[in-house]
Specification:
- The protein is an all-alpha fold.
- The protein has a single domain, classed as Farnesyl Diphosphate Synthase (Orthogonal Bundle).
- Helix content is 68%, strand content 1%.
- The chain is built from 14 helices and two strands.
- It has helices at 10-28, 42-52, 59-69, 75-97, 113-116, 119-137, 146-160, 165-175, 187-209, 214-241, 244-247, 253-256, 262-286, 294-305; strands spanning 106-107, 110-111.
- Strands 1-2 form a two-stranded antiparallel sheet.
- Strand 1 (106-107) and strand 2 (110-111) form a beta hairpin.
- Mean pLDDT is 94; it is low at 1-7.
- Bound molecules: geranylgeranyl diphosphate.
- Geranylgeranyl diphosphate is lined by residues 56-57, 59, 89, 92-93, 95-96, 101, 108, 165-166, 169, 194-195, 235.
């Protein structure tokens, strides 16, 4: 365990975590074989590296690192847990971009993986990242106590899986009418699952790594939920008002698909007001940590005001 550093410039901290995460992911995606592995096929590794390295804000690893820092958790352990989470995020983007899902050509300002390669390679690269995430999160370096690693692994599975991101994606497709008539959409619940769950995991991961009290865990859980919803509303607003060049992907996609979003439900002004309310809720949740919550407070603002 090391002690937390006082919050410095937010952007610098975000950049540093992005840089450290990039270096760590490059190592994890190297060609070197691990025990029990037989071969790492070049086409698969190149595809996984293409979609994981060299882009992205690394917001989810940042949430793990900063929530863990509240409890003085060693940065190396938090970065490793953050890298596992980022692998799941990158897999979800690869699969979401496929023709059978959102059929997107552009991601992080570059051709999507299936455009650059082919659908089969993109499916397998996503599968590879999903399984790699669970290899990483169970490693000894994450925490000396196997019980902590077990709790983290289970939480990650539940946030990423049927009752979280994957389930949310299914509800989203059903709401678009992919499987017959459009199914009614509860936007808040759908987004809590589809995008909120991974962001929330980033926040509770710190509490789990730091073996926090129940009250502290609850505070980070509340904060993570508010941040997740604010993130999604910002995303919906960017799809309407954002700049495709800054975003690195097409805008206007929600409207083209006739999607129910926070913006269609609340209107632009209502959505912006909801973001302000969520920021207040995030601040309130963090109040228990005093100044140790300052970086996460800034993170909520960053998420709400982001341009990409
Ligand atoms: C295919 C199982 C499966 C799930 C897909 C999360 C998701 C579910 C799809 C992503 C679709 C999407 C673009 C949702 C909007 C919110 C979102 C996750 C945006 C991208 O996240 P950022 O802004 O991206 O953190 P970077 O590139 O910075 O990592």
């Amino acid at each position: 365990m090391t002690t937390t550093t006082p919050p410095q410039d937010f952007a610098k901290r975000l950049d540093q975590t992005a840089e450290d995460t990039e270096a760590l992911l490059a190592k994890l995606l190297a060609d070197t074989l691990l025990a029990d592995e037989i071969a790492r096929p070049k086409r698969l590794m190149d595809a996984m590296r293409y979609s994981t390295l060299g882009g992205g804000k690394r917001l989810r690893p940042f949430l793990v690192v900063e929530s863990a820092a509240i409890f003085g958790v060693a940065r190396e352990a938090a970065l490793l847990a953050g890298a596992a989470l980022e692998c799941i995020h990158c897999y979800s983007l690869i699969h979401d971009d496929l023709p059978a899902m959102d059929n997107s050509d552009l991601r992080r300002g570059r051709p999507t993986l299936h455009k650059k390669t082919d659908d089969a390679t993109a499916i397998l690269a996503g599968d590879g990242l999903l399984t790699l995430a669970f290899d990483i999160i169970t490693r000894d370096e994450i925490h000396q106590d196997p019980a902590v690693r077990l709790l983290l692994t289970r939480a990650l599975a539940r946030c990423a899986g049927i009752g979280g991101m994957v389930g949310g994606q299914m509800l989203d497709l059903a709401g678009e009418g992919r499987f017959g008539d459009r199914e009614p959409v509860d936007v808040a619940r759908l987004q809590q699952m589809k995008t909120g769950a991974l962001l929330r995991f980033g926040c509770i991961a710190g509490a789990l790594l730091g073996q926090s009290s129940q009250k502290e865990y609850q505070a980070l859980d509340d904060y993570g939920r508010a941040l997740g919803e604010a993130f999604q509303i910002a995303d919906d607003l960017l799809d309407v008002e954002g700049d495709a060049a800054a975003l690195g992907k097409q805008t206007g996609q929600d409207a083209a698909l006739g999607k129910t979003t926070f913006v269609t439900q609340l209107g632009i002004d209502g959505a912006k007001q909801r973001v302000r309310d969520l920021l207040a809720r995030a601040d309130q949740a963090l109040s228990i940590f005093g100044p140790r919550g300052d970086v996460l407070r800034a993170a909520a603002r960053f998420v709400a005001e982001r341009k990409n």
